[in-house]
Amino acid sequence: ISTAAGLDARTTALDREYVFHSWSAQAALDLPVIAGGAGTEVWDHAGNRYLDFASQLVNVNIGHQHPAVVKAIQEQAELLATIGPATANLTRGLAAQRILSKAPAAFRKVFFTNGGADANENAIRMARLHTGRDTVLSTYRSYHGNTGAAIVATGDWRRMPNQYARGHVHFFGPYLYRSEFWATTPEEESDRALRHLERVIQSEGPATVAAILLESVPGTAGILVPPPGYLAGVRALCDRYGIILILDEVMCGFGRTGRWFAFQGYDVVPDLITFAKGVNSGYVPVGGVIISDAISATFDDRVFPGGLTYSGHPLAAASIVASISAMEDEGIVENARRVGAEVIGPGLRALADRHPLIGEVRGEGVFWAMELVKDPETREPVGADVIGKLKTAVTSRGLMPFTADNRIHVVPPCVVTDDEASRALAIYDEGLTSVEAGH
Ligand code: PLP
């Protein structure tokens, strides 16, 4: 046994013995060993390389080990590795300024959290205090994080064993491929989804609704690119009924869609924006809320009853400044847009033409889903067995996939090259062919 292979075995042994993992029954876990990475690739100790087409949890937008971000963290660690939130710190101020420079003019301040869940938690708190109302509306097809209100705002199954927050009501957002509204065109889907939402608001009592919380482009739920007019229509309903619009940009923000914020493609300005993941690609855990003028003013003379020991942590702040600078200097957001439009999108559509397993592909930038079906007519989703086989097939060919329900999400870092995207498309192609052939 070589030293490298021995390290992989030791890593697996320590992990199985001592580490308790997320969202899993612990006994049957078989996790890949990752020892290093660069750009779009990661590898184990033995040197087996994988194209990271999951960007881990869709968060490593700038790619692995970007030297400028690593250096900024090292330099900040030498200068001041930690400092409490009730201080003014230069790096923190610069990070907030850089984030605000990407947001619409109506935004004034940033509240830093440890990640995406507590960003949503605090956005909900702000909306409730600002409006004096209680109810939060969010969609069934959503994920907003794993804490008190964020997990109950989540629509998917992860909500159900965790319902200990109050005042949450769910509705259906648009999803033309599996329309809840018998729609056949994007316009119909948008109109009818808006009509449904307005009826939910009216039925709950508009004066009780504090906020509508939406992922600008629902991510884990299937990369459900909203139809034309939908987000603008939600904004209009919020204005009509005095409701705060919170857009969750945790997964879709900071370059993922080929824009700094996903909502910037949809003619809508929210009241609160939540972010995490791509803001610094997770080099240090961080998230936050970008706060509009009006909501920020609510807390000018009134105490904001919330805080975290690590709010605005200097290592996170340094990584944010470096990450946004590098993304600007190296045209990384533009790269995501171009590779999506020129390579990934056309490539996935060509796969869909050849493989009956693919019912639909959709997405933009480096944010795509392939929806796998038993039959293109009935659109019946494939089961976990098919997804499992495909996952094994592509992993053995050197690609780390992101899978959710009956889908493969094609979500590489924003720095992905044309060549890497083409190699990945070839691997998906071979994987689909092998699964269709029954092995
Ligand atoms: N919101 C969205 C849209 C997400 O995709 C996620 C995580 O996947 C979260 C919130 C929660 O973020 P975190 O895991 O950093 O708490």
Automatic annotation (TrEMBL):
Pfam families reported for this sequence: Aminotran_3
Q: Which CDD domains match?
A: OAT_like (cd00610)
The protein's name: Aspartate aminotransferase family protein
Keyword hit for Transcription: no
Record bears the keyword Hydrolase: no
The UniProt entry's sequence similarity note says: Belongs to the class-III pyridoxal-phosphate-dependent aminotransferase family.
What InterPro entries does UniProt report for this protein, alphabetically? Aminotrans_3 (IPR005814), Aminotrans_3_PPA_site (IPR049704), PyrdxlP-dep_Trfase (IPR015424), PyrdxlP-dep_Trfase_major (IPR015421), PyrdxlP-dep_Trfase_small (IPR015422)
